């Protein structure tokens, strides 16, 4: 049990004892005064700012056995301050009698997992204050009482807040904890005394003769040895304020702090334990004037950085990174390249020099790409400086630059830290190493521990190169020692990962060894050959269940995958087979989260698109016919305002009686809310006050389905901490922010479960990266095929300029490729070494298309260490019911080529857009508005009923549409207008020698449907050739002329003329001329699409979901389709 949960349960017990003795929690001041009296603590209130408060809000004076607190004017807040200080007495944290400066009754038990909040790294004092806030909340309003009042007595959050006189936010946060998170069983805390060190650990811990690198393989007790090092420094009488301990995650820093202070309590508040980035941020703030930064610069995450750069992007006239529709992906790649440069302490000026030096290289395109990155890098640094921003890369690179160039600051810091300890040294990059070299130039007092074979963070510059040169170059004369006794695994598992390391593993040191303290189990790691991925899941499920029957709890078993998409498929397959899993997956893909977002969207979306999703929520069901009628009704409204839909639909006469009742229920959930309501407060009001939704999730968890409730808790915790930038309604800003997070994969930390969920008996599913530092009784490693492990390096990732990455390889591309190959081996090594008792690997022999595939070549390296086990299940897949929509059309179905293309891209999106006509659209970016103005201009420009326009007339036409649809109020409006004009100029020049011809529809009759093809224009060239043209303002993709809409054009035009697709962003014209085989294939796909539409098959089956889904207008409502049957006259 973690310290926070222990504190909360002790507070709950104190609360229960007080109630047993007659105390009334509805009178919070009297309640806590009773507890203070029981402890013989005197309590006195003082006015704000009184000298007795010593500049704080409350203080526990242990010597006087008295609590002094501010008179806040609120009984509950007074009680909270008193309870907070009682916590200091309860946990003996009152020796340092410093005043409490700030309290937060609504504090989350788990920190936020996105954005710059990741940098928050509390000191020991800070952690104690967090603990005391949670203790105080639990003492006054414990979770059992929250459940009793809310579930048993039916009180709402608002009513409870009034009863207690407490802030609504505090009550809501506590209710979310009580109702959505699993109850954690109270257990006695484990003894905090460290285990005795073995001889090799002891030798490393007491080493004092210069820089030491301790190579610590898996399960060898590296953290225990690091804590032993601190114990040694304590025993030597070292001042704890002169000790700096650095690691790579807040979680690791917190665990190290607790372990260190349990053996050295006097070091509390003195010893500095934290991440490299939090230490760097501390230095940036302390020496901001030396860096020409404000005193508290604002940290930027990737999402913020892209928002900062997006407007500048249009001005840079890029070629290789050009994207005039949605530059997010390009900017992500560029920012990744910039971040990688900062890992090497390469600033914008140096990057430009390296890029220009590549001009003479054979790879001209690589040189040009690096020069474009240099251009953006320079602009980015200028924007950051102007806004007082720093990004994650700056937090180590800037201190390095400072220390290497400012002798006074460097000397001051060198004198401050006599001893520096580094955990997970294999994860350091060159910036981190240079920081350590600046602080410890001769290595004296530097003690680091790591394992090159577990270096799996190459994307942020980690490399075995840093361990290789530790004593030869970075810290000349340093010493390397090793830990070889493994306390985790049986010898057979140790033999497996050691065997892999010895089989020419690139990052492995010589003489790799792992001696299992537990000895032999006689059970070798197993490789199970299965036929398909579906068979693989069935086999994993069978073996998990068999192990459970043999007494191994589900929570002691884990499945590790390299990729998130495979992990999601395995999780789904295990759940279908009745195996409990602890896996949230992508948070914003979960149905209960989409439903929550749909409810919120109803506050700001005048077209109420969210009804299409809310219609599937129990208690609010609308039939699909009612949803369609609602959409039709709202489509006729002219410039509606948010929430106008409530009155409009209340008057609708074409809804069923049940539909009217459900609509009234939906409207009632929004009572008291407006378009300006904040997202978290709106969510709390809808779920806790205005509906029984929260009770439903509580009941669902109580009967064995806890994941939806946990996901909802994670979502509200995210809402509470997120602060989207920009002007507009809070919910709209939130939805735009989530889209960007998902596009950038910057929401992945939200997949990590809250601490309370770890108590559930369910199989752990995680990526190999996420498993680092963990161990499991039985470990399953699926999908070990030659295509997945190792995977090929990404070809489209920008390579750094030659010479940027320090090391033997000069070429940027070659350095990236070598780093990728090394990291793939390290991932496999980490996976192998997580198992304690059993390791079971799986290798499907066939791909999804039935073609054969080989098992991973990594398997071959350890084949002599494995047992090849037959499958215990029979091949075959579970039958899955394919849900369809009951749909009928009054007239023959007519479909356009663009509709065919959309159906093939995603049938569910087709349902929302063309069947239900929900009318959804994303918030338009400046790029999207520019394209809209260009498209409207083109529609009028190519109309054959209009005369050919001169260039001057086209400019006037563009100006009219620009004023109506363009981003005219944007700060860079002139630049966007210029880009739009360039697109139109290309089209004008294209048509100079052509003669427009009348346009008529071309019809294809296929599969009981009519495919109506209407070209954007039909022209005759000067040589007499007839051209049927389709014009797109965006860019060309590799498949743009192979899609169903292109095939429909070719089939419809036949021999009448030539077909040409024009892509204005790329300034490219492409003929559509598929060969007979390909065209026949597309014809069959068109027929299948038409048949599927007529039969009501609209599954959520997008192509490239990671890319397309977050950009879809219906992303936030995409769940199961509403139930019932739908009758439509036609699609168009």
Content-based structural category: alpha/beta
- How are the strands ordered across the major sheet? 16-17-15-18-19-14-20
Number of helices: 42
Q: How many strands, what sense, and barrel or not for the largest sheet?
A: 7 strands, parallel
The 3D shape can be described as globular
Count of beta strands: 30
- The Rg value, from CA coordinates, equals 32 Å
pLDDT averaged over residues: 89
What is the end-to-end distance? 60 Å
Portion in beta strands = 5-15%
Q: Regions with pLDDT < 50 over 5+ consecutive residues?
A: none
* Helix fraction by DSSP (H/I, runs of at least 4): 40-55%
Please give a structural write-up:
- This protein is an alpha/beta fold.
- Helix content is 45%, strand content 12%.
- A 7-stranded parallel β-sheet has the order 16-17-15-18-19-14-20, with helices on one face. Strands 6-5-9-10-4-11 form a 6-stranded parallel β-sheet, sandwiched between helices. Strands 23-26-27-28-29 form a 5-stranded mixed β-sheet, covered by helices on one side.
- A hairpin with a 2-residue loop joins strand 24 and strand 25 (1009-1013).
- Helix 16 (394-405) runs parallel beside helix 18 (430-439).
- The radius of gyration is 32 Å and the shape is globular.
- It starts with a helix and ends with a strand.
